[in-house]
C-alpha cells in the first residue's frame, strides 16, 4: 500500500467516523419529530407495527436531508482534530502537498453525491409511495379491525369498551364478547359474533347474549336476552391523500409537464452536489490554531451551513410556484458556496503553509 493510499485511508477514517455519528443522531431526531406527524395523519388508529413500518419506509427521504449535515460536521470535527493534535503540521512538514488531503475529501464528497443521486432518483420515491399508500390504508381502516383479542380495547377517543376472547378468522366466529358504552348505560355479553357485510355496509352480528340498559342492580335497569342482535358499525370517513410528487417516478415527473413535477425532478438532480460543497466547506472551516481550540470555527461554520440551505430553499421555492424559471434551481448556489469554500481554504492554507515552512527552516 503506497503512502498516498495510507494517508487517504487515515483521513477517510478520521472523517467518516464523526460523519456516521452525527448522521445517526440527526436521523434519530428527524424521525422522532415525524413520528408525531404520522400519528396525527393516521388519526391515531394504527398499531405500533404500522408506525414502525411507515418510519422505516420514510428513512431514505430523511437520510437525504441529514447526510449533508453529517458530512459537513464530520469533516469539520475530523480535520479539526488533526489540526488540534498537530497531525496536519506533521503531514505538511514532510512535504506532502495539501492537495492530497483536499482531493481525498472531494472524493468522499463525490461518493456521497452519487449515493444521494441513487436515493433521490430511485430509492426514496418508491419507499415514499409505499409509505403513503400504507398511511392511506390504515387511516381508512375501521377501528374495529384493530381490536386485540384477550384484552380490553377502547376505540379512539370514545368510551366504548370491547373485549374479545379471540380474533375472527376465516370460517370461525369471535367468541365470548363483552361490549360496553358507559355514557349510554349499555352493556352487552354474547357467546359469539361475526362481521357481516350487507349492501356495502358493515354490521357486527351477535348471537346468544344479554343486553343491559341502565345501571347495575337498579330498578331502572332492563335486562334483555337475545338470540341474534346486530348493529351497524360506524363508517370511518376516507382521508384523501394526494399523490405527492415525491412519490412519483422520474418518468412520471418528466411526462407530466407540470411545473411542480418538473421542479421535483430538478430537485432530485440538483440537490446531491451539496455533498461536494459540504466537503470543501468543512475543510475550509476545519483549520484552527491548537491554542484556540478545535471548536473555534464551529459557530461560523453552522451559520454558513444555515445560510447555504436557506439559499437553496429560496432558489427552488419560486420555481415550484411557477414564479421563476427552471434555470434558477440550485446550481448557482452550489457554485457560489463552492467558490467561498475555496477562497477560505486557500487563504487559510497559504497562511498555515507559510508558518510551517518558516518553522521548519528555523
From TrEMBL:
The chain crosses the membrane at residues 51-84, 105-124, 265-286, 298-317, 329-352. InterPro entries: LptF (IPR030922), LptG/LptF_permease (IPR005495). It is a multi-pass membrane protein. It is found in: Cell inner membrane. The keyword Cell membrane applies. NCBIfam families: LptF_YjgP. Part of the ABC transporter complex LptBFG involved in the translocation of lipopolysaccharide (LPS) from the inner membrane to the outer membrane. Component of the lipopolysaccharide transport and assembly complex. The LptBFG transporter is composed of two ATP-binding proteins (LptB) and two transmembrane proteins (LptF and LptG). Belongs to the LptF/LptG family. This is Lipopolysaccharide export system permease protein LptF. It comes from Reinekea marina.
